[in-house]
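Narrative summary of target 7.
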Amino acid sequence: MKRRNFIQRLSALSVAAVVSPALIAATNEKEESKKDFLKIAFLSDTHVKPTETAEQGMRRAFRHANNLQPKPAFIINGGDSIMDALQADKAKTQAQWDVWNKVILSENKLPMYHCIGNHDIWGWQSKDESVKQDPLYEKAWVIQEHKMPGRYYSFEKDNWHFIILDSTQENNDGYIARIDEPQYAWLEMELKSVDSQKFICIVSHIPIISFCSVMFSEKNEPNGDFKTSRALLHTDTRRLKLLFSKYPNIKTCLSGHIHLQDEVEYLGIKYFCNGAVSGNWWGGPFQEFAPAYALFKFHHDGNVEREMQEYDKAKNA
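Modeled conformation, tokenized:
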């Protein structure tokens, strides 16, 4: 080989070695953007509180979601943003929301849609009767903090229609998983109004249909029955199942609450329970599930895929 040709080929190879990784990354991102799906992140059960462990864990999770390439179109917050407001006084509740807002301001640049979790609700289990007279009592505080249009609402992105439900109702100083009558009437009208060519995703904090709801307790009843409760699974599941059966464009339902993960396909609908950002309330994994969030692909043909993100194990955590 002539010296001039050898030098030319060597130079070309050197340039390729420097440029190709960037070109490959750019090409991959371009190809990804052409794919026929909507990419979203579902972060639930963050349970942040004024401790270093909780605050830094929340930071890592939201930083990880924001650093994904290509970026998700938006985040759905599945509820239980703060550790607990059910029993906390006003000062302790405010302190929790202060941490949440501080981390979101510094770590999140993506649009975010919120769902109300049971622990986001202020005062239901407070022994201070004056709390009930406060304008922020019940769900008013969480709606204000998240700037939500209401406790339940809907929005659209591409050919997908998203419905956010409020699945936690007061029940004898506790709570029960179901939607109330005004919300059910709204849901009926909402489903009727959706273009049949659009696909529907329904979000509830507490699962509507789930297997891991019966796995939450690690022991069975003395007679062998599985333990579950009105607080772990929608008690109006059958009613909602019958309503959903009228709309074949309902393709998936997303939830959190249980801190476990499952995927159940029932009568043509995929139900995903999506673990917890906080894992075992910032004490490591809950049962076998590490702190994590879900990354979804909502395809334009109605198919839905999930990949769990254990954000502390990833390269850019």
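Residues 10-33 have pLDDT under 50 and may be disordered.
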